[in-house]
Amino acid sequence: MNTPSPSAAATPAAPSLAAAHGVYVFLLAATGLTWFLGETGAAGPAVMAVLMGAALLKGLAVAGEFMELRHAPRLWQAVVAGWLIFVTGCLAAAYLA
């Protein structure tokens, strides 16, 4: 007997190796930027905003690409993004206080 193959809509999309490589290069560049700012002794609210923004984007990239959150329900995506925004916002507020 021939068993029907699952429809294309029922199978999840395979992770893109090119997308993973792109995210990996972004993570390397963002880490290099934060390392450079730390090594040069850069300080101040503007530098803190760059560092917190880089940390937030790195967290979203890792969650989306490597933890496969981009395929998760929107509620989970919103919870993780909200948590990352909350944590980076609290750290920024503590720095500015």
Automatic annotation (TrEMBL):
GO cellular-component term (any): plasma membrane
Keyword terms: Cell membrane, Membrane, Transmembrane, Transmembrane helix
Coiled-coil residue windows: none
Pfam families xref list: COX4_pro
Membrane topology term: Multi-pass membrane protein
InterPro entries given in the database record: Cyt_c_oxidase_su4_prok (IPR005171)
Membrane-crossing segments per the record: 12-36, 42-63, 75-96
Principal cellular location given in the protein's record: membrane
Location in or out of the cell: Cell membrane
Protein name in UniProt: Cytochrome c oxidase subunit IV
Biological source species: Oryzomicrobium terrae
